[in-house]
Amino acid sequence: MTIRNALLAIALAFGVMETIDIPDTGAPAAVFAALFVVCSMWLWRRNGRIAVIILALQFTVEATQAHTWKNASATTKDLSMALGTAGILAAATFLTRSLRPSTRAERVG
């Protein structure tokens, strides 16, 4: 699995989780769900760095705030913290690789 595909999978997983949480949380979950899905589509279509930065910020919120959620199971909190951390690492790797200059060997083959 490539870093880009991992980012897409994590973002879409959070998009689904937030969509399911809309009835309980309301507008914040709807906004986060929409941002996860829109940024996933943007990354899928254009490999946009801005989309990855927005996703990294969202992953950071999910990973750092999951332990404060009320009425959420321990499994949900742990899953959100683990996925958020994996998303942060994947986003950092993607951005690092996209910003470094490519060598001639990478361009040719």
Explain what the structure shows:
The structure is a single chain. The chain has 109 residues and is mostly helical. Helix content is 83%, strand content 0%. It is built from five helices and no strands. Helix 1 runs antiparallel to helix 2, helix 2 packs antiparallel against helix 3 and helix 3 packs antiparallel against helix 4. The longest helix has 26 residues. It is globular. The model has no long low-confidence stretch (mean pLDDT 89).
Discrete helix count: 5
Helix content: over 70%
Biggest sheet layout: none
Low-confidence stretches are none
Radius of gyration: 15 Å
Principal-axes geometry comes out as: globular
Question: What is the overall pLDDT average?
Answer: 89
Number of strands: 0
Q: Strand portion, in percent? A: under 5%
